[in-house]
Amino acid sequence: MIPLLWMIVGMGIVTYVPRMMPLVIFDAENYIR
Amino acid sequence: MTSVSYTHHSPEAWSEFKTGLRAGVSVAIGYIPIAITYGLLAKSTGLPLLATFLMSVIVFAGASQFIALNMITIGSGAIEIILTTFIVNIRQLLFSASINSIADRDSPWFKALYAFGITDETFTIAATSGRKIRAFYMFGLCLMAYSSWCLGSVFGYLVGEALPPVLQASMGIALYAMFIGLLVPSLKKSRKFVAIAGTSAIIHTILSYGLHMSTGWAIVIATLIAAIGIEFVWKERDDS
Questions:
Q1: Which of B97, B135, B7, B116 is nearest to A29 (CA)?
Q2: How far out from the chain centre does Cα B16 lie?
Q3: What is the pLDDT of residue B238?
Q4: Which residues pair with B133 in a beta bridge?
């Protein structure tokens, strides 16, 4: 069960990062302006 | 530092949230049958209920969850499954970038939160809404989609448990039927998809049967080579 949970967490991370990066990282320019 | 257009306790925020919830109803209605199917298949794969639920809660990406079930069935390792999930979901980078171009100025924390709920369907609803995307609208929209997906998964699993053993055992075939159901409409639309699917099938066969590579890695490598290779060939063809 534990390796399965780690796998699910890994799947969650690689799914979340592409969803989050453009919104949070690209948005930085709005804050510089 | 720019100011956020409204605060989390303003009536406007509540109204945006409710609009988002209403917009999410159509997504939720579409998600429930797929989530139930996912739960049913997770049960037939032998995944525990907690893992089935957590996968929906933590990953929240239908196609990659179905692929993960298939890869668990064929005995793939965790790294192969995580890599495949990354390849399948990297497209959401484009959705998110597109949402950012129509998003209102909001706290990056709010954006980081609603980014979790960006899927093909919530993106489509948000992008075609013709409105400036605000955090509380996205919270409502994503919450509706997310809750239907998570609850549907658990419901599907419990339904699977209640089925007679013979039916449970035969559910394995449903996974392949579902993938065929997902693939065929794309194949009808474009010859490029036929080329990608065909090429990846050929590469996968060579890698797993010819070179005796593990099925999980064969899937990862075949998908990458076919998608990048055919895209490149198609671009060259369009340019000439």
A1: B97
A2: 25
A3: 77
A4: B103
